[in-house]
């Protein structure tokens, strides 16, 4: 138990000092069992401009068991279902998954962001969306862009995610690139 807390404290520090690109993450209050995260949609993808909120539950057996991660923001994606659950090998135990204790919250968030921008229709949670992705890509892209605009847009062009991460007990901030975009949006 104490080892888990020490590791999570170290990971919080890592997330604060060198967060993954396009990601902000922080513990929910003083509880190291629940984390909140925000992922910015990758440029030049159907999720570009989207701000996606996630929740991560860190189990008592962490790092020997993976965290449970789910999207709180609705997203149109073959590997993310309507409840926000994610189909990603890294989030599953072997033999069906690839979780190893060497992984951490940062690598999980990086993998989730990568999956968001590069769906895997061969291992879908939403078979109808996966079929659309493979056979009617233009239709998939239009719907994904529509959902991103409808559900994943910030009402704050100033980029409050950056200022919130900087000004609170949260453990991470978005990248300098995101700060630049925020400055340009003000002009």
Structural key phrases:
alpha+beta, 14% strand, 6 helices, four-stranded antiparallel β-sheet, single chain, disordered C terminus, 4 strands, 187 residues
Q: How would you sum up this structure, described in words?
A:
The model is unreliable at 156-160 and 162-187 (pLDDT under 50). A 4-stranded antiparallel sheet has the order 1-2-3-4, with helices on both faces. It is 39% helix and 14% strand. The chain has helices at residues 2-17, 105-117, 127-135, 137-151, 160-167, 176-186; strands spanning 23-28, 31-40, 51-57, 68-71. The protein is α+β, with helices and mostly antiparallel strands and 187 residues long.
Topology of helices and strands:
Blueprint: H1 2-17, E1 23-28, E2 31-40, E3 51-57, E4 68-71, H2 105-117, H3 127-135, H4 137-151, H5 160-167, H6 176-186
Antiparallel strand pairs: 1-2, 2-3, 3-4
Helix pairs in contact: 3-4
Q: From the alpha-carbon coordinates, what is the Rg to the nearest angstrom?
A: 17 Å
Tell me the overall shape: globular
Helix content: 25-40%
Q: Which residues sit in consecutive blocks of at least 5 with pLDDT less than 50? A: 156-160, 162-187
> Could you describe the largest sheet, including whether it forms a barrel?
4 strands, antiparallel
Number of strands: 4
**Number of H- or I-type helical stretches:** 6
Helix and strand pattern:
HEEEEHHHHH
| Beta-strand residue percentage | 5-15%
> What structural category characterises the helix and strand content?
alpha+beta
Could you give the order of strands across the largest sheet? 1-2-3-4
What is the average of the pLDDT values? 86
- First and last CA, distance: 49 Å
């Amino acid at each position: 138990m104490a080892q888990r807390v020490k590791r999570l404290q170290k990971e919080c520090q890592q997330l604060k000092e060198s967060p993954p690109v396009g990601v902000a993450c922080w513990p929910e209050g003083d509880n190291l069992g629940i984390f909140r995260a925000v992922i910015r949609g990758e440029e030049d993808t159907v999720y570009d401009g989207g701000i996606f909120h996630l929740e991560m539950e860190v189990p008592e057996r962490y790092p020997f068991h993976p965290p449970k991660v789910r999207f709180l923001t609705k997203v149109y994606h073959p590997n993310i279902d309507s409840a926000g659950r994610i189909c990603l090998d890294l989030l599953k135990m072997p033999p069906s998954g690839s979780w190893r204790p060497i992984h951490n919250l940062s690598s999980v968030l990086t993998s989730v962001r990568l999956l968001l921008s590069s769906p895997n229709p061969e291992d879908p949670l939403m078979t109808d969306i996966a079929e659309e992705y493979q056979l009617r890509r233009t239709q998939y892209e239009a719907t994904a862009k529509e959902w991103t605009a409808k559900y994943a847009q910030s009402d704050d062009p100033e980029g409050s995610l950056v200022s919130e991460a900087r000004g609170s007990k949260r453990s991470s901030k978005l990248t300098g690139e995101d700060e630049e975009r925020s400055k340009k949006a003000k002009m």
